[in-house]
Specification:
Largest sheet: 2 strands, antiparallel
Number of helices: 7
Oligomer: single chain
Low-confidence stretches: none
Strand order of the largest sheet: 1-2
Radius of gyration: 20 Å
Distance between the termini: 30 Å
Mean pLDDT: 92
Length: 158
């Protein structure tokens, strides 16, 4: 059986183990890395882009409410709230766009993974199910890259 052919499912040919092996082969064929990477990139970009847009007014003016959020609720250690608000807003916008484009994907995913870790540890420690799902998608991109439908691939970047 070649990698580009879809095997037929026949429950009688080889028993349940062979049937499950064929099902696994079909599943792998239907979900290539490039598809998974593209879906992960778009899903994660949507999450971080929408979060970034809540922090700005107009095109890119960081709102007073964003500054208040970092000052009153987030309270990150070691980073002044004003600077943290600016850094988070720029990072969420920038890395979301880079993920959609598939440009510097591993770096962008790693940066957002770091941001997710900071949010988990210092801001919302009880939100670990959400953050774990983000981390799983981000780790896939860090480890496997952007896939074929990306500027990384077009530019010959890994």
């Amino acid at each position: 059986m070649t990698p580009n052919t879809i095997p037929m499912l026949s429950p009688t040919a080889g028993g349940p183990r062979a049937w499950l092996a064929r099902l696994a082969h079909i599943s792998a064929w239907l979900t290539p890395h490039s598809l998974l990477a593209l879906v992960n990139r778009i899903a994660l970009a949507g999450i971080f882009w929408l979060s970034a847009r809540t922090k700005v007014e107009g095109w890119f003016t960081i709102s007073d409410s964003a500054y208040a959020l970092f000052s009153d609720e987030y309270k990150l250690p070691l980073i002044p709230p004003h600077l943290a608000a600016q850094m988070a807003t720029v990072a969420e916008h920038l890395f979301a766009v880079l993920l959609v484009l598939g440009l510097f994907t591993r770096l962008s995913a790693l940066a957002l993974l770091g941001m997710t870790l900071v949010i988990q540890v210092f801001v919302y420690p009880d939100a670990w199910p959400t953050h774990l799902s983000w981390a799983g998608l981000l780790l896939y991109l860090v480890g496997r890259g952007a896939g074929a439908v990306s500027l990384d691939r077009a530019l010959g970047l890994r």
